[in-house]
């Protein structure tokens, strides 16, 4: 009997035992006879994805994916992959072209329509997230979803026919009324809520006064890098990484 790691997923929640993904044979884990999908390897062993059942919910401790992002990179990315692929399988059960029930490919992670042979692959929705500075100040915003708590960077989805850099300029202007320059790529992070890939950028202020997009932003201000800051995003987020990098740049300014 082969041992594997098991990603047992309930929407955005993941089953853990002793703060780790369950490990063992299908019989030991209780997944024998159930539909599972091998989605890769984890710590040298196969990683199988299983959708949670009612019995799983009573047997395992489930945690929200967002609470696990400060884990090691391998662990965090593995969990994001499992949640995103589970969402894909849940939302692509029927062909979007002819309505026939899809079947899972035996060769790859894809859903196939047996009627019209349409193939469906996991979907990623690219988005941008950007930290911007003005001299020794950083712009931080309090979004409606974090009203009264976290101040973070600006972000938004990339639109069809738009480059990532154009999306950065557009989102910043729409949400804050500011124009920026010196846009440069910083890094990326999967954000499986449900299927985003965030592309992180740094940028410098060019012109304008803050004008809020009130349906999205409660407050946005310039904060001095060398003075106390409001509550920031949690460890493990690319938002915090962008803020920390921008603060370093601000503090290196001599004027």
Automatic annotation (TrEMBL):
Zn(2+) binds at residues 95, 98, 113, 116. The gene is nudC. This is NAD-capped RNA hydrolase NudC. mRNA decapping enzyme that specifically removes the nicotinamide adenine dinucleotide (NAD) cap from a subset of mRNAs by hydrolyzing the diphosphate linkage to produce nicotinamide mononucleotide (NMN) and 5' monophosphate mRNA. The NAD-cap is present at the 5'-end of some mRNAs and stabilizes RNA against 5'-processing. Has preference for mRNAs with a 5'-end purine. Catalyzes the hydrolysis of a broad range of dinucleotide pyrophosphates. A motif (Nudix box) lies at residues 156-177. A divalent metal cation 2 binds at residue 171. Keywords: Hydrolase, Magnesium, Manganese, Metal-binding, NAD, Zinc. One of its GO terms (biological process) is NAD+ catabolic process. PROSITE patterns: NUDIX, NUDIX_BOX. It catalyses: NADH + H2O = reduced beta-nicotinamide D-ribonucleotide + AMP + 2 H(+); NAD(+) + H2O = beta-nicotinamide D-ribonucleotide + AMP + 2 H(+); a 5'-end NAD(+)-phospho-ribonucleoside in mRNA + H2O = a 5'-end phospho-adenosine-phospho-ribonucleoside in mRNA + beta-nicotinamide D-ribonucleotide + 2 H(+). Residues 121-246 form the Nudix hydrolase domain. GO terms for cellular component: cytosol. It holds the Pfam family NUDIX. Its cofactor is Mg(2+); Mn(2+); Zn(2+). Divalent metal cations. Mg(2+) or Mn(2+). Substrate binds at residues 66, 108, 121, 239. Gene3D superfamilies: 3.90.79.20, Nucleoside Triphosphate Pyrophosphohydrolase. Its EC number is 3.6.1.-, 3.6.1.22.
